[in-house]
Amino acid sequence: MSPILETVSEFATEPDFLICLCRTSDDPRQGLTQILIDRQEHGYEVREIHKIALNSQSTAQIFLDEVRVPVANTIGGEGGALKRTLAHFEKSRAFVAMQSVGLARRALEEAVGYASERRQHGKVIAGHQLIAAMLAEMATRVDAARLLVHRAAEMFDAGLGAEMEAAMAKYFACEAAVAIARKSVQIHGGNGVTRDFLVEKLAREAIVCPIPEGTTQIQQLIIARALTGVAAF
Ligand SMILES: Cc1cc2nc3c(=O)[nH]c(=O)nc-3n(C[C@H](O)[C@H](O)[C@H](O)COP(=O)(O)OP(=O)(O)OC[C@H]3O[C@@H](n4cnc5c(N)ncnc54)[C@H](O)[C@@H]3O)c2cc1C
Asked: Of all atoms in ligand 1, which is nearest to the CA of residue 216?
């Protein structure tokens, strides 16, 4: 068996240490432990992963080859990491959802601006009903996504669990961002696929959103489990 443990991490190329989520026993609930690894003391290899978008943060593979650390580097006690990780996911999902809302809002603003200026068949394209319908749908989805994220955030502020609500926010907002960015490109016509217009970049950024912190399908499974009590994973 290879002694190399491979993992994926955000911002991995920069920091001096990492918190590695390790399997320390087969117990399904208490088998994960967080271990602090200092890069200078216990060197590990970092390889950047090149992505189509979301390049404001680096994503990298980390290779741990025969890395040994003292027991004192264990964080929060052996076997206690799953609960903390799941609690973290609730908030990080709402965070990705909010990123998606921002992205979708900008895509809508770009579409409104372009549709109000671009003229075809004797009038601005905003005056064509099929374009108007697209704008109305986009704006409604942006608002619905924003309200779902706010609900989850308010529940966090009130100290309540929001597993299902955070999953709904991530599911809806990320898919909305993809759909809205795509429509914004469509409203820009041929210009929309050129690098001269921002919407091309927004479409690439949006397509990443439904993947990290649990894919859309995983959010759907979490929501359905909350409704029925039956896990369909
Ligand atoms: C920008 C970015 C940053 C990331 N950062 C990190 C990080 O910091 N740390 C880290 O560990 N990982 C990170 N990841 C990895 C990310 O968590 C995974 O890519 C994601 O969880 C999906 O897992 P996967 O790629 O193995 O896809 P798979 O699990 O192989 O899924 C492939 C497809 O099958 C579907 N699928 C899988 N299981 C089921 C099921 N039971 N029922 C129905 N459909 C299913 C998925 O929804 C998807 O459509 C990052 C990924 C990206 C894109």
From this structure: 47
- What does the pLDDT look like over 20-71, one tens digit per residue? 999 999 999 999 999 999 998 888 888 999 999 999 888 999 999 989 999 9
How wide is the angle at C-alpha 48 spanned by C-alphas 47 and 51, nearest 5°?
145
Q: Which of 217, 220, 221, 233 to mutate to test the pocket of ligand 1 (most atoms within 8 A of CB)?
A: 217
For residue 233, being part of any structural domain is answered with: no
Domain that holds residue 11: 4-75
Question: Ligand 1: which atom is nearest the Cα of residue 218?
Answer: 47
Active site residues: 213
Q: Is the CB of residue 59 below 6 angstroms from any atom belonging to ligand 1?
A: yes
Same domain, 106 and 205: yes
**Are 59 and 115 members of one domain?**
no
Q: Interior CA angle at 89 toward 57 and 231, to 5°? A: 135
Residues 29 and 117 occupy one common structural domain: no
CA dist 103 and 109 (Å) reads: 10
CATH code assigned at 46: 2.40.110.10
